[in-house]
Amino acid sequence: MIQTPDIDRPPRALIDGLAAIGSATASGELSRLGVRNPHMIGPVAWTHGKTIVGPALTLQFMPKREDLYGVDEYADPERQLHRHVLYHTQPGDIVVVDARGDMSSGVFGEMMLTYFMGRGGAGVVIDGCIRDYPKAKDLGIGLWLRGVTPNFHTQTNIMPFAVNAPIACGGVLVMPGDIIVADDDGVVVGPIKLAPELLAKASEHHDWEEFSRLKLAQGGDLRKYYPLSEAARAEYETWRSTQA
Q1: Which one of 85, 86, 132, 173 counts the least CB within 10 Å of its CB?
Q2: pLDDT (tens digit per residue) in 179-238
C-alpha cells in the first residue's frame, strides 16, 4: 500500500492576510527579505482574473522508465502518485507539480480536477500540462500551466515519482507547505518561515500603494507619491487612520 506524507499548514489568518497583497508585491517584498527570485518561469494563468493563496502540496515527475511504469492508464490506478497527492487535499490547498516542462503529458484531467475541486482545492500550478481543458476551465479552481494536451499523464515521456517532497517548479524550489501566491502576473513561492514577516511588510506596502494610487489618479507628483516619500508620510498616515 502506498503511503505519502502530508504537509504542515499555516494558520488561516496568515493565508487570508496574504490573499490581499498579490504576486507582484509578494515578489518584491520577498526579494527585500533575501529571496532574490521567487517567481516561477513557465506556468501562467489559464483562469484569468483569479487569485489564490495557499500551502503547497507537491508532486514530482521524472523521466519515464518503462520497467518502472507501464503505459496503461487504468491498469492499477493506486500506483498513480498523481492520485495520491490529491488524497491530501484540504480546503485552500494548492497542488504544485514539477512536470519537467513536458508539453506532451496531461498531469490531471477533468475527473481528477473535479475531485480536487470537491475537496476544496484552490488551484494547481503545473510546469507542464493538463488535459480536458475545455471542461476543466469551468470547475472554478485556478489553473497555472505551461499548456494543454489531449494525452494522459504517463502516455509519453514522464511518470509521477514523489509526493510532498521538495521539487523544482518553473525554476523555483518549492518545499511542501510553502505559501503559493498566484494571480494573472504569475506564481510566487513564499518560504513558510518567512510568511509572517512577508505578511507584515507586504501589508504595509499594499496600504501605501493604495494611498499613492489615489494621489496619482488625482494628478499628484510622481516624485512625491511613488515610491512614498518622507514628504508624503504624514499625509499617508492621516489617510491610513481613516481606513480602519
Answers
A1: 173
A2: 999 999 999 999 999 999 999 988 888 888 889 999 999 999 999 999 889 999 999 889
CA distances, 133 to each of 89, 102, 104, 145 (Å): 21, 16, 14, 11
From the number of C-beta atoms within 10 Å of its C-beta (0-12, 13-18, 19+), residue 63 rates as exposed
The pTM of this model reads 0.90
Is residue 42 a contact partner of residue 118, using CB atoms and an 8 Å limit? Answer: no
Quick one: the chain helix, strand, coil %, rounded to 5?
35, 25, 45
Residue count of the chain: 244
Per the omega criterion (within 30 degrees of 0), is the bond before 77 cis? no
Three cell numbers at 62?
521524472
Phi, then psi, of 4 in degrees rounded to 5: -130, 150
Name the nearest CA neighbour of 143 among 16, 57, 44, 55: 44
Q: Is the CB of residue 131 less than 8 Å from the CB of residue 106? A: yes
Q: Is 133 exposed, middle or buried (0-12, 13-18, 19+ CB in 10 A)?
A: buried
Q: What is the CA radius of gyration of the chain?
A: 20
Confidence check: pLDDT of 50 > 90: yes
Cβ distance 127 to 97 under 8 Å?
A: yes
Q: Is 90 helix (H, G, I), strand (E, B) or coil?
A: coil
Contact predicate 82/95, CB 8 Å: no
